[in-house]
């Protein structure tokens, strides 16, 4: 394994982090475009973003499982297995995507009353379902390309896509197509990205079912799935609680969640770079390589934990000025903002432990951790949400969730590496 240092790790982590950020910006661009139309439209797209996020959960699970196995194959210098792993991950992705689309299409009539938003949300979701398979393939193939070292190329492709998405969103909203136009733009962009990545990956992916490889992905998938479904379910309930507080609170909550998604995506991407390096080191089976990776990761995370919350604060103010023009909305926003910023610090500082545990494929613990922290979050949000604290109480629960995850992961890290 090539010796890692801070500069090399940054070159691996930053493009992945920015790509993850830009991927979330696709959704934020849609939200901001819709926010210029009205609160009802904003609520509808916000509610369906929660549903789409849950739908993506299983695909993200395949993606993470695939990336860790590909990284291990790189460390073992097994190029043929590397190609087969992603090929079988795509086969699994297609199967799960089709099942997910059928299921959500069947139950979507319940969503307007469930979230207490306008029925236009069904139209938006139906169109987005048309592009779900494309989105899923893009998720796995872009993860594959990042893991094999093509981070910068994927970043450039994502930048182009988000700029194009912004331009087309502005055009369709200006022409009066509203939520429908924005949804079709997203489907078009995802289809374009899928075609580009299929072409780019034709030399590095073999689409042939191999039972042993498929099972290996499946074994990691099951625990990773439990980890992610716990957080998605608590997020779903989290949104339902705020949706019932009133249209003003929910409009602010939609924007806050989008900002939280931004920092979580960036931090997740940054951590993915470390996870890849840890995965390669685990395949290399060298204690000195693993120790060096941990040392470099610690230095990076410590610095970013100071800088990143400041950046998110500035982004939050800009987003608020654009999307929440009414004074009443801004007052609610500023009350919750401190909790968002502290949450940014907690998540960034915890990423050291998250990334390493994923890199050594300790998905069983991560699943247990998420179940415990998600239950705590739901209970706290339910209790505090119905006190005079209201939306502030719900976001206190959000912060508690991050703190619980950090200290459970830190304890697990000590059990593995310090005992």
Features:
mainly alpha, 88% helix, globular, 419 residues
Describe the secondary-structure layout.
Layout: H1 6-35, H2 39-76, H3 79-107, H4 111-115, H5 120-130, H6 132-147, H7 151-174, H8 178-200, H9 211-243, H10 247-284, H11 287-323, H12 327-359, H13 363-385, H14 391-417
Helix pairs in contact: 1-2, 1-7, 1-8, 1-10, 1-11, 2-3, 2-5, 2-6, 2-9, 2-10, 3-6, 5-8, 6-8, 7-8, 9-13, 10-11, 10-12, 11-12, 12-14, 13-14
User: What oligomeric assembly is this protein in?
Assistant: single chain
End-to-end Cα distance: 26 Å
Mean pLDDT: 85
Please give the largest β-sheet.
none
Order of helices and strands: HHHHHHHHHHHHHH
Helix content range: over 70%
Strand content: under 5%
Name the structural class: mainly alpha
Number of helices: 14
Description:
The chain is an all-alpha fold and 419 residues long. The protein has one domain (6-417). The protein is globular, with a radius of gyration of 21 Å. The protein has helices at residues 6-35, 39-76, 79-107, 111-115, 120-130, 132-147, 151-174, 178-200, 211-243, 247-284, 287-323, 327-359, 363-385, 391-417.
Task: Summarize the structure in short.
With 419 residues, this protein is mostly helical.
């Amino acid at each position: 394994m090539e010796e890692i240092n801070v500069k090399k790790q940054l070159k691996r982590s930053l493009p992945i982090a920015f790509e993850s950020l830009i991927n979330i910006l696709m959704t934020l661009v849609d939200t901001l475009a819709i926010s210029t139309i009205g609160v009802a439209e904003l609520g509808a797209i916000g509610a369906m973003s929660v549903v789409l996020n849950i739908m993506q959960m299983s695909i993200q699970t395949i993606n993470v499982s695939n990336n860790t196995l590909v990284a291990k194959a790189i460390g073992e210098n097994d190029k043929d297995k590397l190609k087969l792993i992603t090929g079988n991950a795509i086969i699994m992705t297609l199967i799960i995507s089709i099942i997910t689309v059928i299921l959500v299409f069947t139950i979507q009539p319940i969503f307007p009353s469930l979230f207490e938003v306008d029925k236009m949300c069904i139209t938006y979701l139906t169109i987005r379902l048309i592009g779900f398979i494309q989105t899923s393939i893009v998720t796995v193939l872009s993860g594959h390309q990042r893991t094999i070292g093509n981070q910068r190329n994927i970043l450039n492709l994502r930048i182009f896509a988000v700029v194009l998405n912004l331009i087309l969103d502005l055009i369709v909203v200006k022409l009066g197509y509203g939520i429908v136009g924005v949804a079709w733009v997203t489907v078009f962009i995802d289809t374009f990205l899928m075609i580009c990545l299929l072409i780019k990956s034709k030399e590095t992916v073999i689409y042939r079912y191999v039972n042993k490889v498929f099972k290996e992905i499946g074994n990691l998938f099951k625990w990773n799935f439990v980890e992610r479904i716990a957080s998605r379910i608590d997020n779903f309930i989290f949104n339902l609680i705020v949706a019932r507080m009133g249209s003003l609170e929910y409009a602010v909550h939609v924007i806050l969640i989008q900002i939280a998604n931004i920092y979580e995506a960036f931090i997740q991407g940054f951590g993915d770079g470390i996870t890849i390096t840890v995965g390669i080191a685990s395949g290399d089976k060298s204690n000195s390589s693993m120790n060096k990776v941990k040392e470099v990761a610690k230095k990076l995370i410590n610095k970013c934990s100071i800088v990143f919350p400041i950046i998110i604060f500035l982004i939050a103010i800009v987003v608020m000025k654009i999307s929440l023009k009414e004074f009443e909305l801004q007052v609610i926003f500023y009350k919750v903002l401190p909790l968002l910023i502290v949450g940014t610090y907690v998540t960034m500082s915890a990423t050291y432990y998250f990334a390493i545990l994923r890199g050594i494929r300790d998905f069983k613990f991560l699943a247990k951790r998420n179940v415990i922290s998600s239950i705590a979050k739901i209970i706290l949000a339910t209790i505090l949400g119905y006190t005079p604290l209201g939306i502030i109480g719900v976001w206190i629960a959000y912060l508690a969730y991050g703190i619980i995850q950090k200290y459970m992961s830190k304890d697990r890290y000590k059990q593995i590496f310090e005992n």
